[in-house]
Amino acid sequence: MNAFFPGSIGGTFVLCCVIGIGEEWLFRGVVQPVIGNVWTSVLFTLVHVRYLSKPLLVGSVFVTSWLLGWLMETSGSLLPSILAHIVIDLLLAFYIQHGYSRERRNLE
Known about the structure:
Oligomer: single chain
Strand content: under 5%
């Protein structure tokens, strides 16, 4: 079951905010200063274990993580990477929810 459906828009927004803030604080704020962006991105990718059987998703998660790390490094602040993470998660969540709704309509 996916955490993104069939929730309300407000619930999805809150969930994406919590995930974005929590993951960016942990990975970019705590881990990245110690082991660097590349290794943090490897760890971030491994934590998203549900994607590990799909090479394209593994690559996408790694590149997204690396870009979020780069954003934090170049800005000197966690805020841009947190906001970007929230936007990415919201777009993906709404895409998944839309597909879920369309699939349900097709079954009726």
